[in-house]
Design goal:
single chain, 107 residues, mainly alpha, 2 strands
Length: 107
């Protein structure tokens, strides 16, 4: 958060990109929104339950169903509290589209 505060005062402007469960929480996002004067874009990547299970198995994840359900609840709450762009991420083609969209934002 210290870095976000520092960059918010830079007259040249910055784009800060972060991902992951630890930073994707309402408190952090609210502080970023305030610091950036409401210039905050959140993406939520959506996949089918089948794809989620396959990806968890491929990674060897050990989170139980309770933990996984907690993540779903967390995302639902954040999507209600913040402007969120939902994007499908099922295929490599979806990945390519996401990369292109992200590059447009930062270049």
């Amino acid at each position: 958060l210290k870095l976000v505060k520092e960059l918010a005062n830079d007259p040249f402007g910055w784009t800060v990109i972060f991902e992951g469960d630890r930073l994707f929480n309402a408190s952090f996002l609210e502080q970023c929104r305030r610091i950036s004067q409401d210039c905050l874009t959140c993406w939520v990547l959506e996949v089918s339950d089948e794809t989620k299970k396959l990806r968890h198995a491929d990674r060897g994840d050990t989170q139980d169903e309770t933990w996984l359900k907690g993540r779903e609840t967390k995302v639902e709450r954040i999507t209600k509290a913040f402007p969120v762009k939902k994007r499908t991420h099922e295929t490599l083609d979806d990945t390519d589209k996401l990369v292109k969209e992200l590059l447009k934002l930062i270049l």
